[in-house]
Design brief:
Blueprint (H helix, E strand, L loop, with lengths): L1 H36 L2 E2 L8 E2 H5 L1 H26 L4
Antiparallel strand pairs: 1-2
Helix pairs in contact: 1-3
Amino acid sequence: MRWQGVIDATLYPLIFFPGMVFFLIKGWDMTYHSYTLGEKMGAFPFGLTFYAYYLKMAIPVGTALLLVQGVSEFLKSLYAVWRGKWL
């Protein structure tokens, strides 16, 4: 149990968090760029249009939620390192 916690606590800051921060920054840039252009999608029936940045906002929001979950898992792995058991 302790070794799994050590490996998890090591790999979260080295792999998971940098990747999620990258997706958060790039997703936000893509959404902001779409917002500034006023990008629209017109593939809806009856001639309706829809702003694309509403859909693109799902990427940074979902990534932020994954970061919150990652912090929780990282803290659980630290607990496993210190106590030798999982929560």
